[in-house]
TrEMBL record:
UniProt record similarity statement: Belongs to the GrpE family.
Assembly and oligomerization: Homodimer.
CDD domains cross-referenced by the UniProt entry: GrpE (cd00446)
Stretches of the chain forming a coiled coil according to its record: none
Pfam families linked: GrpE
Stretch list, region Disordered: 1-42
Family matches, as HAMAP family: GrpE
Name of the featured protein: Protein GrpE
Classification lineage: Bacteria, Pseudomonadati, Pseudomonadota, Gammaproteobacteria, Methylococcales
Function of the molecule: Participates actively in the response to hyperosmotic and heat shock by preventing the aggregation of stress-denatured proteins, in association with DnaK and GrpE. It is the nucleotide exchange factor for DnaK and may function as a thermosensor. Unfolded proteins bind initially to DnaJ; upon interaction with the DnaJ-bound protein, DnaK hydrolyzes its bound ATP, resulting in the formation of a stable complex. GrpE releases ADP from DnaK; ATP binding to DnaK triggers the release of the substrate protein, thus completing the reaction cycle.
NCBIfam families, A to Z: PRK14139.1, PRK14140.1, PRK14150.1
Originating organism: Candidatus Methylospira mobilis
Length: 194
């Protein structure tokens, strides 16, 4: 143990263990008390003081390790808070995206008014999806992909001769992720061997 570590250990012992104060007070009082004590008694006191110092040094190291772990956890929590701060807001906007998509699908007909409505809704949807993407919200559209239970929720199974088994053949509702955290799974129909 270096001289600096010994000094630190004694500081910790003095601040934590009142018994060590009594030992130091005996030392400060002169050698009058020590002159009557045998070397064995002094060796026992020294061993006890060294044991207490070692215990307190161990406590100090544990507290420092705890503080380092707490600092790392706090930093990680803060990073996650920044990264996922928009989670609730993004979830609320998903209903708006769904409504726009349904409105576009429902806008059928060949009249110029319907065509203008569809065009305006398409542009609005693209802008909204662009804004969501700018803040880390990504759309999950798994049509034709293998079923992934981490990202997709199977709503039904459909026999299919064309598609491979466990492949998404229909998407009821698209899923979304915020910075790799799932906001909503994609609601899908998966193929079953016919």
């Amino acid at each position: 143990m270096s001289e600096e570590q010994t000094t630190q250990a004694l500081d910790v012992v003095n601040s934590v263990d009142p018994a060590s104060d009594a030992l130091q007070n005996d030392d400060a009082g002169g050698n009058s008390g020590n002159a009557d004590e045998s070397p064995e008694a002094l060796a026992e006191k020294l061993a006890a003081a060294q044991h207490a110092a070692a215990e307190n040094w161990d406590k100090l190291l544990r507290v420092q390790a705890e503080m380092d772990n707490l600092r790392r956890r706090t930093e990680k929590d803060l990073q996650n808070a920044h990264k996922y701060a928009l989670e609730k807001f993004a979830r609320e906007l998903l209903a708006v995206v769904d409504s726009l998509e349904l409105g576009i699908q429902a806008a059928t007909g060949d009249s110029p008014e319907v065509a203008k409505l569809r065009e305006g809704s398409d542009l609005t949807l693209k802008q909204l999806l662009g804004a969501l993407e700018k803040f880390g919200v990504a759309q999950i559209d798994p049509h034709g992909q293998k079923f992934n239970p981490e990202l997709h929720q199977a709503m039904a199974v459909e026999p299919s001769a064309e598609a491979e088994p466990n492949t998404v053949v229909k998407v009821f509702q698209k899923g979304y992720q915020l910075n790799d955290r799932l906001l909503r799974p994609a609601m899908v129909v998966i193929a079953q061997q016919a």
